[in-house]
Specification:
Layout: H1 2-5, E1 41-47, H2 51-54, H3 56-65, E2 69-75, H4 78-91, E3 97-101, H5 102-109, H6 129-133, E4 136-137, E5 140-141, E6 144-150, E7 152-156, H7 157-163, H8 171-183, E8 190-191, H9 198-210, H10 228-242, H11 256-261, E9 267-271, H12 274-283, H13 287-291, E10 292-295, E11 307-315, H14 323-333, H15 336-346, H16 365-374, E12 377-378, H17 386-401, H18 407-421
Length: about 425
């Protein structure tokens, strides 16, 4: 799941946002329909992350009903994917199909280089709303969701029981849990993101929404970073670090498993589901079942739920030479049977709700927790400048943790910088 978790993106130069045209098409490409006939020709696919290495197994499945199609796959380094795709759009040398992670979709769609999802290709109601909505702009969908995930609380069962601490359900009980674990000898009871970048900002966003806040207005026209609700959320999160209930210096992403395995942490807050298998890889099969309790994210002071979510979606460039084949493959990958097959291959969680009813996904505590989280998922601000703005927020958060600014001062500074950066749309 490293490909899901290590998501990187850069702010892209905008060449026009795809908006609905009067004739029913979009600024990013003409509207089209896709029939039920087998796909033909060659489909050029660009992939990124660890997902791409295993994807050819799905090509074989697709070819069973589409024997006259050929699929060529090019793996692009993840850190270079956004810039290479933008350059390809400018040069007109695009592939037929890509998948984009949730963090990069806004930037890519803003180039105006992608077609809208053809009418009736798929049913939007089949997907988790938060994942479908991530690639919808001005009521036009540009991506077909492939997989989805939601973060959670990952708790060392043995340490919690020893401290007499119950699984947190809200902010108050999260702090109580941490205090009990601290008293029982755990050095840093809570593992909170300490990268102080857009990922740290994403964690604050979940807590802000739990508190009734958010970073951007509903119409995506105004940054609301320094709202009272957001300041309170930052005060709560930073207080956990300044009070020694979480470390200000870690864990960083890849040392999260060692910290929690050794008992330096007792809970990963806002942890991705991929950590579960990583614990077994590090400590032996079955270690997670024996040592870890999973739970949805805690709710805010008024009971509001909000969860960090992510995933990937299929997108077709407007200059694709085989749009018909590309969309047919995207449709194939959204079928419940394909979603289950991909879960069996790579353990990515389905974006299609019906797939969760398959016996292959039944009685799986990780999936049950993820499914609950998807119902309260929070998308990142759907503007192309989010990575820049998120980085600014993360940097300001570090100042609060280090004692260089109050939460209000930090978010006031982030607000001012965000207004200078703008929306990019």
């Amino acid at each position: 799941m490293l490909g899901i978790a290590l998501l990187t993106s850069s702010a892209l130069l905008l060449t026009g946002c795809g908006r609905a045209a009067e004739d029913g098409g979009t600024a990013g490409g003409d509207a089209m329909t896709v029939d039920e006939k087998p796909a033909t020709g060659t489909i050029e696919i660009w992939t990124q992350g660890a997902d791409g290495a295993e994807l050819p197994q799905m090509f074989d499945e697709f070819k069973k009903d589409n024997p006259d199609v050929e699929i060529n796959m090019t793996q692009v380094p993840e850190a270079e994917f956004a810039s290479k795709m933008t350059a390809a759009i400018t040069a007109g040398t695009v592939p037929d199909l890509i998948y984009a992670f949730t963090e990069t979709q806004s930037s890519l769609i803003a180039t105006g280089g992608f077609d809208a999802v053809p009418e009736k290709l798929v049913d939007p109601d089949d997907f988790f709303e938060v994942i479908w909505d991530n690639s919808v702009y001005d009521d036009v969908a540009y991506g077909v969701p492939w997989y989805a995930y939601a973060n959670m609380q990952i708790i060392r069962t043995d340490l919690a029981e020893k401290a007499g601490a119950e699984v947190p359900t809200d902010w108050d009980s999260l702090r109580t849990f941490a205090e009990k674990l601290k008293d029982a000898g755990t050095e840093y009871p809570l593992a909170l993101d300490s990268s102080y970048d857009a990922y740290t900002a994403r964690q604050l966003l979940a807590f802000s929404v739990q508190n009734g806040g958010g970073f951007i207005s509903d119409d995506l026209s105004t940054w609301t970073i320094n709202s009272e609700e957001n300041v309170e959320a930052l005060e709560f999160l930073s207080g956990l670090k300044t009070d020694g209930l979480a470390s200000s210096d870690g864990p960083a992403f890849l040392d999260t498993v060692p910290w929690t395995s050794s008992g330096k942490n007792a809970e990963i807050v806002d942890g991705g589901p991929w950590f579960i298998s990583w614990f077994d890889d590090a400590n032996g099969a079955g270690w997670s079942d024996e040592h870890l309790t999973l739970a949805p994210m805690p709710t805010g002071p008024d009971g509001d739920a909000a969860t960090t979510v992510g995933g990937g979606s299929w997108m077709v460039p407007s200059d694709s030479e085989n749009k018909d084949g590309a969309w047919k493959f995207a449709r194939f990958m959204s079928e419940p049977s394909s979603q289950v097959k991909w879960f069996e291959i790579f353990k990515n969680m389905p974006a299609v709700k019906a797939a969760w009813e398959d016996p292959a996904l039944a009685d799986n505590r990780v999936l049950e927790t993820v499914e609950k989280g998807l119902e309260s998922g929070v998308n990142l601000p759907k503007v192309s400048t989010w990575t820049q703005v998120g980085t600014v927020i993360g940097e300001q958060m570090e100042k609060v943790v280090r004692g260089g600014a109050s939460a209000q001062e930090a978010l006031d500074a982030a607000q001012a910088q965000a207004e200078s950066i703008g929306m990019g749309n």
